[in-house]
Amino acid sequence: MREEVESLDTADVAASWVSAEVVRAGVQERIKALADLSHAPLFFGRLDYEDALAEGPPADGSRGGAVRQHGPGGEAHRFYIGRRHVHDREGDPMVIDWRAPVSQPFYRATRRDPQQVRLRRRFGYTHGDLTAYEDEHLTDTTEADRSSALLQREIERPRVGPMRDIVATIQPEQDEIVRAAVEGTVCVQGAPGTGKTAVGLHRVAYLLYAHRERLARTGTLVIGPNESFLHYIEQVLPALGELAVRQTTADRLVAHFPVRGADDAPTATLKGDARMAEVLRRALLSHVTTPTEPCVVVRGSRRWRVPAYELAEITEQLRERGIRYGAAREALPQRIAHAVLIRMEQAGEAPDDRVQDAVARNPAVKATVKEVWPAVDPARLVLRLLSDADFLAEQAAGILDDQEQKTLLWARPARGVKSAKWSAADLVLIDEAMDLVARTPSLGHVVLDEAQDLSPMQYRAVGRRCSTGSATVLGDIAQGTTPWATGSWQEALRHLGKPDAAVEELTQGFRVPREVIAYASRLLPAIAPELEEATSVREAPGDFAVRAVPAGELDAAVVAACREALGREGSIGLIAADTRVDRLATALAEAGMPYLDPGRETSEAARLTLVPASLAKGLEYDHVVLDEPAAVVDAEPDDRTGLRRLYVALTRAVSGLTVVHASPLPEALSD
Ligand SMILES: Nc1ncnc2c1ncn2[C@@H]1O[C@H](COP(=O)(O)OP(=O)(O)OP(=O)(O)O)[C@@H](O)[C@H]1O
C-alpha cells in the first residue's frame, strides 16, 4: 500500500500551486504513516463471523462495512485484524484496521455474548515470525474457557526500550474506554500498571480513526507529567499510524514566560486554588470604569453627543453579557458608534455600515474606550496582584484572608513582566488571565495523563483547551505527589469544566508482580484509604527482596543489586531520592557501570537507568532497585506526599524489585 501511495502522481491533480503543495504534503504524511514497522506484524488476529453475517454485522456506517462483501479468498465473513488497513492490488481489503467497528468483537466478544463471531484467532509472533496461534470457538458450548497464553506471554515479556502499543491484547474493560463516544469526557481511576496510559493513547488513535476529519480540524493533544515520560510514550501513536497528535506537559502548556522562580508548597497550593480564578476575574474587571463624561463625535460641521448615562448603560450591558474582556473591548466602539448613528438617523441622515465603522474609529470614541475599558496585559495584571498589597487586598476581599494575601505577595516586587521571576504556578495564573481577556481556542480532544497531580487552576487551564471538545482524564489518587493533588475525581472534573464526565475504574494490573503490588499496597491506608489494592494478571511470581544494610555500606549494596539485576534480561531502573542521585551516579561510575538518564531510550546495550524518584511516574523497568525508601519519603514536604512518592517508586517494577535500605523503613513497610 505504501508503494501504491508512493507511486501516486500528484503533478496534475491540483488546480493551483498551493493546493498541489497541500496534496503533496498529504501524500507524504500518508507514506510516513504507512512506514513499515520491523517489530510489528501486519495482522495479529482473525475473526470468523457466523454465516448469517453475510447480511453484515450491526450497521456501523463506516469503513468496516465495505469489507464484508470482499473478504480475502472470496469469503465474506472472515476478517484479519491488524494495526493498519491493508488492501490488495484490486483494492480488496486484506487486513482490517483494529479500530473499525467490525474489529470490535475481537476485543469484546465472549462465549456468553459471541456477537456473531464463530472463531476468534490470536496470532503470536517471535521476532517478526509467526510462531503460534490460539483459537476460541465462541459458539461452541462444549469448549472450555481458557486464559490466553499469548496475552500472558505479551504481559510477561521483558521490557526494553520505549512503551509499545497493546492493540493485540486490549482487554474488554479497556476497550470500552478506548471506544467511548467522542462527545463524552471519560475519567479513569486505576492503580499502577492497569494500563491507563496505554488506554489513553489507544483512545486518541481510535478517535482519530472514527472522527478523522473533525479531529484533524480541531486537533488532539496528549498531556503527560514530564519530558521523560513523553519520550517514553512518544512512539506508541506513530506505531499506530497516527503522527499528528501533539504531546506536551501541563507546564509547557502555559509556558508564556520562562520559569525562573519557585514557590514553597503553601504558596504554590494557594496559587493553584480555584479561588484565584475569581480574584483574577475581579482584578481584570476592576479596570472597567463608569463613564462620567459624554462622548462627542465631530463629523464635518456636526457634533454628535452620546451622554455619560447612555455610555454607562452600554458598558453595563457589556459587563452583564459576560463575554471575554477583549471581546467586550472590541464591541464597545461599535456600540457607541451605533448610538451616534441613531442620532444621525433621527436628524434625517441615512448613514450606512461604513459610517458606523468610521465613527467607531473616531478619536473621541477611541478615547472613551481607552478610559472606560482599557487594554489590560494579562501578565502585568498578575504581576500587579503579586506585587501590590493594596490592589490585591481590594480584589481578594472576601475571597482570600489576610494571611493568604500575605502568602501570595512577592517578598521583592518585580519590575517588569520580562524580568519577573515567574514560578510554574504564576504561569498558570497568567494563562487564566489571558483566557479572561481572549478565549483560548479549544481542541477536539485532550488526553490528560497523571491527572491527579494537577491543581484546580491547572485543571482549568487544561479544561479551556477542550472547552468545546472532550477529554480523557487518567490518573490514580494514590499516586498524587503534589501538595495540591486532587482528592476526588468529581472535584477535578468540576474544575476541568466537565462535571458530568463518567468515572471508570481499571483494576487489573498488567505491570507489577503480585507480591510487589501487595507490598506497595500496604501504604494505601495512609495515602488513599478509599482505594482498593490492585490485582495482578501476571502469573510469574517476580523476584522481590528487601535488604537492610549498615549505613556505610548502602551505596555499595545498591551498586551490587544493580549488577545482579543486570545479570537478568530486560531494563533496570535504579530509583532513588533526588538528593541521593549524585552520590549514586558517582558510585556507579566508580564501579564502571554505565547508566542512562530517564528519557533516554534503553536498549540491549544500555539497560540501566538512574531515575530520580521525582521523575519515576508513569515509567516502568523490568527490574527496579529502590534505594533508601526513607530518603524518598523525607524529600517531600509532608509525610503523605512522601509515602505516595514511595508508592510510585515501588510500583515501577515489571518482574522484580529489590529494596535496599540503611535507615528504618516507613512503618507500614517494616514487618
Ligand atoms: N491489555 C494489555 N495487554 C498487554 N499489556 C498491557 C495491557 N494493558 C497494559 N499493558 C501494559 O502494562 C504496562 C502498564 O501500563 P500503563 O503504563 O499504561 O499503566 P498505567 O495505569 O498508566 O500505570 P501508572 O499508573 O503506573 O502510570 C505497560 O507495559 C502496558 O503496555
Automatic annotation (TrEMBL):
<feature type="binding site">
    <location>
        <begin position="190"/>
        <end position="197"/>
    </location>
    <ligand>
        <name>ATP</name>
    </ligand>
</feature>
<dbReference type="InterPro" id="IPR000212">
    <property type="entry name" value="DNA_helicase_UvrD/REP"/>
</dbReference>
<dbReference type="GO" id="GO:0003677">
    <property type="term" value="F:DNA binding"/>
</dbReference>
<protein>
    <submittedName>
        <fullName>AAA family ATPase</fullName>
    </submittedName>
</protein>
<keyword id="KW-0067">ATP-binding</keyword>
<keyword id="KW-0347">Helicase</keyword>
<dbReference type="GO" id="GO:0005524">
    <property type="term" value="F:ATP binding"/>
</dbReference>
<dbReference type="GO" id="GO:0005829">
    <property type="term" value="C:cytosol"/>
</dbReference>
<dbReference type="GO" id="GO:0043138">
    <property type="term" value="F:3'-5' DNA helicase activity"/>
</dbReference>
<dbReference type="InterPro" id="IPR014016">
    <property type="entry name" value="UvrD-like_ATP-bd"/>
</dbReference>
<dbReference type="InterPro" id="IPR027417">
    <property type="entry name" value="P-loop_NTPase"/>
</dbReference>
<keyword id="KW-0378">Hydrolase</keyword>
<keyword id="KW-0547">Nucleotide-binding</keyword>
<dbReference type="InterPro" id="IPR027785">
    <property type="entry name" value="UvrD-like_helicase_C"/>
</dbReference>
<dbReference type="Pfam" id="PF13538">
    <property type="entry name" value="UvrD_C_2"/>
</dbReference>
<feature type="domain" description="UvrD-like helicase ATP-binding">
    <location>
        <begin position="169"/>
        <end position="513"/>
    </location>
</feature>
<dbReference type="GO" id="GO:0016787">
    <property type="term" value="F:hydrolase activity"/>
</dbReference>
<dbReference type="GO" id="GO:0000725">
    <property type="term" value="P:recombinational repair"/>
</dbReference>
